[in-house]
Amino acid sequence: MTSEPFGDLIDRCRAAEDDLVRRWRADVAASLRGRISELELDKELRELLDAVLSAVATADGADTRSAAYGEVRALLVDLSRARALQGFSPRETAISVFALKRAVRESVEVGPEFTAFSDVIDELGLFTFESYAKTREEVIANQAEQLLELATPVVKLWHGVVALPLVGTLDSARAQVVMEKLLQTLVDTGSEYAIIDITGVPAVDTQVAQHLLKTIVAARLMGAECIISGIRPQIAQTIVALGIEFGDIATKATLADALLLALGRIGVDVTAEMSKRGL
Amino acid sequence: MTAQELPISGDADVVRVRQAVRAAAVEAKLSLVDQTKLVTAASELARNTLTYGGGGGAVVEQVTKGLRKGVKAVFHDKGPGIADVAQALTDGFTSGSGMGLGLGGARRLVDEFAIETAPGDGTTVTVVKWAR
Amino acid sequence: MERLPILKIGQMLLVSIQVDLRDDMVVALQEDLAERIVETGARGVVIDITALDIVDSFTGRMLATIAALSRVLDAETVVVGMRPAVAITLVELGLSLDGIKTALDVERGIRLLSPAGGAAR
Ligand SMILES: Nc1ncnc2c1ncn2[C@@H]1O[C@H](COP(=O)(O)OP(=O)(O)OP(=O)(O)O)[C@@H](O)[C@H]1O
Ligand SMILES: [Mg+2]
């Protein structure tokens, strides 16, 4: 069945399919400069063409947002994702779709019905562009997460004492990454004390405070103690207002006080250590 | 990976379900912490299937949503069912000798959680965890 | 049924879990440990879970029961080597194992239990 605005364009495209795909592939291949094999490209474009023609041939053929275009959209998402991950530019990616217009014009006789078809391709091209952008965003978000992990310095202060100086806003995602890293460092360095210094954290919300609390409990399960230092007045107020039980968790005003507390518990005699080092 | 159907009729089966879920979670590239959370949830649910459902089975499979991969695990039995689901999900509620943490805890450990049950009609619990 | 081996080291008992835990093994361990504490007059029990890749509510409850049981028999229990991912998961599950002594590894666990070492922490 062929719907009204496209006349018998779809049937003519089907009849000239091989020629059409050949022209289309040639255009696309030129823009991709051999970075995808002809064979792969041929398969990809044939599948796409078939899906597009089938969708156009339905009653909803003019509406690319309709259910009829479900498969087309899925194929375009795959295509744009693959291109984005392979490092192709948005232009190189969108051409894969737009080039279909010229291929159709060159391989079949077209009349006024081509305008409607051209509109459809424009819509699909834009859709491809959008999903390309979405994938790039995901890639960037992933990289940001990796950077975050790198930017989390857990430092060893003493044999058996590590510190995590937190700086900047802590969101829930970052808090989770940071806390996991802290716990792993306890194992890797065999440290029984961890100081979480939040002097550089302007504010915490409930979720972040909960993460902090859970980390402290998890550390205890592993056989280590956490000391929190540098709680600002506002944060103390948040914690109290939220009714979060910090219970018997050790807190100290400064990192230095926290270190002294840890050293005391380990049984390090600080004055003796200083004179040993000639200080 | 295709769906894997595993019987749950003894303690050894609970271990096997955990191993299957772990393998699927590794394949779906879940982080170590997420793998551990999912396997722990599976352990709780498999044990409930055994203890309260009188045995049953688990179906473990990989699922995808766009680029994201995940693992889905379904636990089913033809046991007595749960009359009051909200109560069963409450931390601390147990009709047996447990701590009543299994169901509620499992729900906290996964991304998607659903219970289908009716008195006398068995229980099916479905959980999904997605790679971050 | 496979039983978990219990080693006697001086005044202490050591259980190092190296296999995938089945519930029946867990129950048996509880019984075996109570017997061995009485039999040997041990003052401490070290349970090494370094190799365990999960601890669920059943195993958690067993650890708590063993700790309570040994206390009644005048011995202290310390659980050592819990992995970070396992600890994070246990907390999310809702188990904090209050009242159970923990240590990073077997060596520190033993030190914690020996009469002199306990004072440090
Ligand atoms: N498959 C099931 N069939 C019937 N009843 C169930 C099933 N699963 C759970 N329940 C009911 O829900 C209650 C709560 O389950 P939950 O797993 O939270 O706790 P529990 O198994 O009693 O203890 P825990 O899991 O902490 O050892 C159970 O005591 C039981 O009454
Ligand atoms: Mg349970």
Automatic annotation (TrEMBL), chain A:
Record keywords, A-Z: Phosphoprotein
Keyword Phosphoprotein: yes
Occurrences of domain STAS (ranges): 151-262
InterPro entries: Bact_StressResp_Reg, RsbRD_N_dom, STAS_dom, STAS_dom_sf
Keyword Phosphoprotein assigned: yes
Pfam families linked: RsbRD_N (PF14361), STAS (PF01740)
Entry-linked PROSITE patterns: STAS
The protein's name: STAS domain-containing protein
Originating organism: Herbidospora solisilvae
Lineage start: Bacteria, Bacillati, Actinomycetota, Actinomycetes, Streptosporangiales
UniProtKB/TrEMBL annotation, chain B:
Histidine kinase/HSP90-like ATPase domain residues: 12-129
Cross-referenced Pfam families: HATPase_c_2
Positions of transmembrane segments: none
Protein name, per record: Anti-sigma regulatory factor
Species the sequence originates in: Herbidospora solisilvae
UniProtKB/TrEMBL annotation, chain C:
Domain called STAS: residue spans: 1-113
InterPro entries: Bact_StressResp_Reg, STAS_dom, STAS_dom_sf
SUPFAM superfamilies: SpoIIaa-like
Name the record gives this protein: STAS domain-containing protein
Species: Herbidospora solisilvae
